[in-house]
Amino acid sequence: MQKIEYVIYLTAESTDRLRINAKKEKGEILEFVVQYEALISEDWKPIVRYDTAHGFAHKDIMRTEGKVIKQPLFFESYNLAFTYATIDMKANWKKYREDFEREER
Q1: pTM of the model
Q2: DSSP single-letter state for residue 91
Q3: 89: number of CA atoms within 13 Å, CB side?
Q4: CA angle 101, 5, 59 (to 5 degrees)
């Protein structure tokens, strides 16, 4: 089994990052986490996470009061869900941060 772990910084200031973890075997993703984190008030806060915890692929949207909104993903494989999660985070992280900060105010 191959473990994949890396961090992608999305800004030059290193205030936004994607944390990627996955386990794969023979080209198939067995489980994954793709999490967008933002440095807010000197703390790294998880904002949005895609993962396979609880036995299914889903998206977790964190709210400032601690609530988590869980949205299931309907892909035929974890490979497709993992690819979608990575693309979505890279394309939409600014909006996710703005939504989180707006809610925090």
Answers
A1: 0.93
A2: H
A3: 30
A4: 45
